[in-house]
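Worked problem 6 (solution included).
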Amino acid sequence: MRIRTVDAFAARPYTGNPAAVVLLDGDGFPEESRLQAVAAELNLSETAYAHPLPGDRDADWALRWFTPTTEVDMCGHATLATAQVLAEDGLLHEGERVRFRTRSGVLSASREPDSTLTLDFPTAELTRIPVPDGAGQALGAEAVAAWDTGTLGMLVLEIADEKTVWELAPVSAAVAALPAPVVVVTAAAAVPAQDRSGPGEPGHDFVSRVFAPSQGLPEDPVTGSAHTALAPLWSGRLGRETLTGLQASRRTGRVRTTLRGDRTLLNGQAITVLDAELRTGL
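Solution. The predicted structure is:
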């Protein structure tokens, strides 16, 4: 069984968020315990399994995602990684789109002329809520606002400034006690991308960090799905449909977001860094 590790939302190797991708033969998945065991063995934030759907009129592949401890309903970076593997195998060409049947419905990815990949995901529904008790102690910094994200299942907390987001030192046990399995912390960029000039790293409009200790991920390096909530938040605030988000993890990664009403486009690069064989099979 072939396994590839892909750095998603990464401009260079060993940045972004690594995901393992396994393309399966046949028309079904192995038993769930085996899928979970391999994901735990690989110990990456996500392992994606996909098999073709030749008889499905609405989707081309079935796709599932597993953290080291559990299956999840949606994962952006592992979907981007899967699309990258399909492109490398000659199954996704420039200008084409691939459709995945998932626990969150049919999601699609397309390959752009510059070899980047664009995901088409549902936009999260944001509801302003009071900042939960204990959020400041859990993060080590006070949040100025909070949002529920509905079926996305994430809690979004806004921090006053970008510098504080970079310096957060959260307490995992306290974060796990907050009222959502995934906590997204965000702030506006200290200098918006459109105001930057000169050489150096490309600009960004907002920053974020994502913590999910209850799902076996103390911190996720780059979280595509979180940007389906960050895009409407910051596009509404900044008045532009297309923005660049920088996830301020140790590895860092950039996600270009374009808000299209109830859909959010997530664009980024991906790089395969490992191609290996699973000797025990599934």
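Discussion: The chain has a mean pLDDT of 94.
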